Amino acid sequence: MRATAVRRTALATSVAALALLATACGGSEPSKGDEGKDGAKEGAAGKPAVKALTAAELEKASLAQGDVEAHKITKAGPEDSVAAADVTSDKEACAPLARAFYGAEEGKPTATTKRQVISEPKVDGGDVTEGDVEDTLESAFDLTSTLLTLSSYDSATAEGNIAALRKAATDCAGGFSVTTGGETQKVTKITEEKVSGGEEALAWTLAAEQDGQSMPLTLVALRQGGTVATFTSFNLAAASGKGTLELPAAVVAAQASKLA
What we know:
Elements: H1 3-25, H2 32-40, H3 55-61, E1 71-75, E2 88-89, H4 95-101, E3 111-119, H5 133-140, E4 144-152, H6 155-171, E5 176-180, E6 183-193, E7 200-210, E8 213-224, E9 227-235, H7 236-239, H8 249-259
Antiparallel strand pairs: 1-3, 2-5, 3-4, 4-9, 5-6, 6-7, 7-8, 8-9
Helix pairs in contact: 4-6
């Protein structure tokens, strides 16, 4: 994420962390007749064609508050949207990964939704004593913020987008630069991670450099039918070297379940 975007998101996440801290401390099978029709629509691989979800269907399939325990889920605002045309990379092969990094639309989806998902800080619900203040504040900022983007396509296009991400991650494992909004960020290393969900799922940890400081981020891409979900996450504590950034497993599992 570009410097201004990270600072803005970090500030919003910090406010959410303090608010959450205050709350915590205060208290059917097709018929044979149909098979012939479906068969006519099957692709070369013999799989039935999947139509793209409509905007209403995609909205219904997107995460909402209450879908993930101990997480705050809100609709992302205009400030969280980055146009694909505004994202460039120093290596063209890395462009699909760069766009996914920002949750930018890939190609021309029929519909897109975006969510901000923030984990609640792990703090005790009892009174905070003077000696516990520092530890409590550190725990309050040990939370992960995830930008979740869902984009709907026909199944062939969705599969192609996942394949392009897989190839980009392989070709760009040694790093690349991303420029958006006139600011450039370097991704110095990409490490593949294990993830499951949907019909296809990929995940990576990215070592990024911003304003001379290192920041770990994670990127998950998941496909279910013609819908592609990307999850870009960072952790405030991890960014300051006082925490660990892990894949947002609960968020990925919840979204995969709603898309199934």
